[in-house]
From TrEMBL:
InterPro entries: NAD(P)-bd_dom (IPR016040), NAD(P)-bd_dom_sf (IPR036291). The lineage of its organism: Eukaryota, Metazoa, Chordata, Craniata, Vertebrata. GO terms for biological process: import into nucleus. It comes from Atrichornis clamosus. This is Protein HTATIP2. Transmembrane segments: none annotated.
Amino acid sequence: QAVVDFERLGEHAAAFQGHDVGFCCLGTTRAKAGADGFVRVDRDYVAQAAELARAGGCKHFVLQSSRGANAQSRFLYLRVKGEVENLVQAVGFDHCTILRPAVLLCKRQESRPMEWISQQFLGVVARVFPTAYSVPVETVARAMVACVLQPGEGKVEVLENGAIHELGKA
């Protein structure tokens, strides 16, 4: 594990050398970082990390994005996620897997009251419709590993929430 300064990511190129696979789950919130900070973390840092990984020999890059990601969206969150998906694909990995989970179910250290309320509601909904609106972070992690062990066809593979659930069970 290497600790890097994302504001000076280029100075840490050695940390990205010699890896066959790269996993990226980097992200923040607009509330925590402001609009500019959100774009810097969720798009710029991720794109730069992907470029460094590719330059370091990475063949397969696995990116956690978001359901609804769309570079043309009017919503900042979805637009930035769509933009970073396009940037990562353009890096030219032999294989790129993009996971688009719905609401992530997890325990957080910081307090996010509205997110907690929605997670409680979605936790109940998930009992009836387990793959519709949410996914546990553990399932996403298992799916990320599984997609490397059994890569899909083609250069770019996009896994939506239902596919993440299926792959995360394997």
